[in-house]
Amino acid sequence: MAEGAERKEQVAAWTADKKNISKYAMNLNQLDNGIIVPPTGWKCAKCDKTENLWLNLTDGSILCGRRNWDGSGGNDHAVNHYKETNYPLAVKLGTITSDLEGADVFSYAEDESVEDPLLAQHLAHFGIDFSSLQKTEMTTAEMELDQNTNFDWNRIQESGEDIEPLFGPGYTGLVNLGNSCYLAATMQVVFSTRSFCLRYYEDQSLKRAFDTALSDAAVDLNMQLTKLAHGMLSGKYSIPAAEKQEGIRPRMFKSVIAASHPEFSTMRQQDALEFFLHFIDQVERTHSESPSIDPSRSFKFGIEERLQCPSGKVAYNQRSDYILSLNIPLHKATNRNELEAFEKLKAEKHAEGKEVSAEEIVRPRVPLKDCLDCFSAPEEVHDFYSSALKSKTTAIKTAGLTSFPDYLVLHMRKFVLEAGWVPKKLDVYIDVPDIIDISYMRSKGFQPGEELLPETTDEDMPLADETIVAQLTSMGFNHLHCQKAAINTSNTGVEEAMNWLFAHMEDPDINAPMSKKAQSSDAPLFDQSKVEALVSFGFPEELARKALQASGGDIEKATNWIFDNPDASNSAPASDAALPDGGGRYRLIGIVSHIGTSTHCGHYVAHVYKNGGWVIFNDEKVGVSKNPPVDMGYLYFFERLE
Known about the structure:
Elements: H1 5-14, E1 20-21, E2 53-56, E3 62-64, H2 77-85, E4 89-92, E5 105-107, E6 112-115, H3 119-124, H4 140-149, H5 181-190, H6 194-202, H7 206-211, H8 221-233, H9 251-258, H10 272-286, E7 301-308, E8 314-321, E9 324-326, H11 336-351, E10 365-367, H12 368-376, E11 379-386, E12 391-401, E13 407-412, E14 415-418, E15 422-425, E16 429-431, E17 435-437, H13 466-474, H14 479-488, H15 494-504, H16 528-536, H17 541-550, H18 555-564, H19 572-576, E18 585-595, E19 603-610, E20 613-618, E21 621-624, E22 633-640
Parallel strand pairs: 1-6, 9-13, 10-16
Antiparallel strand pairs: 2-3, 2-4, 4-5, 5-6, 7-8, 7-12, 11-12, 13-22, 14-15, 17-18, 18-19, 18-22, 19-20, 20-21
Function: Recognizes and hydrolyzes the peptide bond at the C-terminal Gly of ubiquitin. Involved in the processing of poly-ubiquitin precursors as well as that of ubiquitinated proteins.
EC number: 3.4.19.12
Protein name: Ubiquitin carboxyl-terminal hydrolase
């Protein structure tokens, strides 16, 4: 029952962010109501729960914790008590020992785990001698860690199904390393594609990868991907062990792929989409000298945006991407009558003080076709500077694809920000057919009779207020982004510019260089030695200057800018011209699903279509999928039919 060093390190890594001292701790009001808490025998004051109990440090009430997404946990009595009383702090009974730093204190008012420097005094108020107490409950951090490490097979989407285990080549599970389901689910689908199987398994032996490693094979991405591919696809490690397989532990691969990323190198849960894009980016970088064998190109496609201002003249912008990120138009739900009836039922039950049961919940059903249509639908762009009108106006933007990749990845934007920047997961089903046709989404390009907007000159563009830019850059924002923010808010102030920055961080052209005049009439942000340094890396001088100007003269940021903006190079169109292309009909071959309320918690599972049937990959567990959750996907992987 003792906590070993490894366990303590795991928990420390899981809760890497240091807890803050609660602002309520130092002046906490404690009621003199005569309550004395016994050392054992605790029970929730409002139900029969005897575990997951929280002691409110204001009035001494003992109540059960929150109900988890899967039905486990408490009955929400402690948090409901806070809503009724506004008594902010509670400590989890069973986590209090002589080492008070290990006690689990939660602030409902601040909505996070906190430190209470006066915890001993607050406990003594209710007659609690912490020095004699033993630990009997896991802290919240420990429970989160265990839920991710020992995730119960029966609680994922196909719970209750009699899963038939699968073994052999291509059916090897990946053991959860404490919190790596996002990695496991993503890699199972990636290595079900022909391009990655060929590159790292069929066309490359382990010995060849070892011999050609540029440095230490342990930190060589090509070597570790080849090792992972042979482990997953050979079948050597997919053999029955007490009617289940043990899977493989991708420790070295995770270490290498996460080495350059501050989030993936932790044990915290991560977004599968962010990991996929980071992984593809790293693979592309390793093939910079040999793009013809780069398997990441099978996911790459071109996007063209057409902007038309009220003058009737147009502008075209092109970029490349690896995923098609789709908004979910809830107003297009096909079951609106059922939703209206459910909302009415929910209101009636709430009026009676009751909650709707899980069986009664009705979720919107939105066809995938409507999500795809949203991508190419006309959209208004406000504050668009028209070089024809020489003023800001509202333009109409449409988008299309210039090429269709071998594998199309669709990202469903289920995670949105509500008022106050509070993240929320849309509880929605997406009706996804086995075969889709996106031929209509191909861009038409510049058409006869269209007239292009004139090139913007230095004289056209306003100057950024360098005072605003300086204040924003001192906060850590990118210099180019700050200039754009100041200009697009007409230099009205720092707050307005900052709000613009937050709203446009994800704009595809956020890193596009501006005219020299817009970059201010002051001296350049860099000297010739920095240009020469980038040129020595093999970059063209013109591209080096663009990158330095866009990155405030920082060489490291400029290097990243070049990799993140392949279209900025004069040679980029030539390489992009070789992007895979073909017809627009695709078949669904993979799904990455997410359980939980946020990308930073919960669990990821993969379903892959193999050999005529669906297979479920839940970490190291692999089996026949009888009821794949096609309508619950977060990422959908399609293979082009032609």
